[in-house]
Amino acid sequence: MAKVKEKAIEGFLICCSLITVLTTLGIILVLATETIAFFREVSVIEFFTGTEWTPLFANKKFGILPLVCGTLLTTSIAIAVALPLGLTIAIYLNEYAHQKFTAIVKPLLEILAAVPTVVYGFFALTFVTPFLQSFIPDLSGFNALSAGLVMGVMIIPYISSLSEDALRAVPKSLREAAYGMGSTKLQTAFRVMVPAASSGIVVSVILAISRAIGETMIVAVAAGQEPKFTFNPLTSIETITTYIVQVSMGDVPQNSLEYRTIFSAGMALFIFTFLLNNISFFIKKKFQQRYE
Questions:
Q1: For residue 277, what pLDDT is reported?
Q2: CA atoms of 139 and 124, how far apart (whole Å)
Q3: Cα separation of 288 and 152, whole Å?
Q4: What phi and psi values does residue 32 have, to the nearest 5 degrees?
């Protein structure tokens, strides 16, 4: 009877594991099917090299680069904000702050990740943009800078919390050895603890980048819907996720070429994040080999 129960539990766990795999395969299958149908009418070379994206206009252009450019621009701004702040917070909580203070502050920081992203979007549009316009007159009402800054604040918990966990997992013997060699707290934190926890820190940054790339509501509300091939953060741009939302509103007939663009854009986003995750895995492995 005990063996039957163990087999049943094992089968249940296998089914739970297969759900995620089958869901991923289903997503890939749907994206691939519609993307293949899209590329029967649109050149692959034009799609990946074109600098104009106007599939909803009379003069249709299907160059994905403006959407990729907008996605990379907002993500870069977000990481430029979140990485130094998140890592500094993690080092402070782990090396300097009292344990009771850390126990209170860390959950409060994680609340930032629980705030609905549409709230962040309206905050960027109604507060951050007017504030920035007070000393940047050329700033557009919809712009990548405001969206990127607020997105950076949103993903701070991803870096600070996971990096703090990685730092806390470093053996105390390394810290004590550094102090024994005469290192200060600052030297120990940045020259011993951070390198030793580098694999966990890299994972936190990867997760934050993936979260920023897939963000929809902040960029849809605050960044605009103008696909431009530009790296100027002061102008209105459009990201891949924003375009998918725009077309999914129901104004475009299903099974049309315009409708299939959301699947091709989604496949491009999937490929982009897949490559990013593989590169990050390679970097993480290198860091682990270096510091083991």
A1: 75
A2: 13
A3: 27
A4: -65, -40
Lowest mean pLDDT across 80-94, 114-128, 206-220, 277-291: 277-291
Closest listed residue to residue 210, CA positions, set 115, 282, 153, 275: 275
Is residue 232 helix, strand or coil? Answer: coil
185 or 74: which leads in pLDDT: 74
Residues 6+ apart with CB under 8 A from 82: 152, 153, 155, 156, 158, 159, 208, 212
CA distances from residue 157 to 100, 107, 138, 222, 235 in whole angstroms, order as listed: 19, 9, 32, 21, 28
Using a CB cutoff of 8 Å and minimum separation of 24, what contacts does 207-211 make? 207/158, 207/162, 208/78, 208/79, 208/82, 208/83, 208/86, 208/155, 208/158, 208/159, 209/75, 209/79, 209/276, 209/280, 210/273, 210/276, 210/277, 211/155, 211/158
57 burial via Cβ count (<10 Å: 0-12, 13-18, 19+): exposed
Residues 30 and 32: their CA atoms lie apart, in Å, by 6
**pLDDT tens for each residue of 96-152:** 888 888 888 888 887 877 888 889 999 999 999 999 998 888 888 899 999 999 999
Cβ 172 vs Cβ 198: under 8 Å: no
Entry pTM:
0.87
Question: Could you read off the pLDDT of 162-204 as tens digits, one per residue?
Answer: 888 888 888 888 777 878 887 778 878 888 888 888 878 888 8
Residue-by-residue DSSP string for 124-187: IIIIIHHHHHTT-TT--SS-HHHHHHHHHHHTHHHHHHHHHHHHHTS-HHHHHHHHHTT--HHH
Token readout for 241 is: 């996720």
- Write the single-letter amino acid at 240: I
Is the Cα torsion angle 86, 200, 216, 269 positive or negative in sign? positive
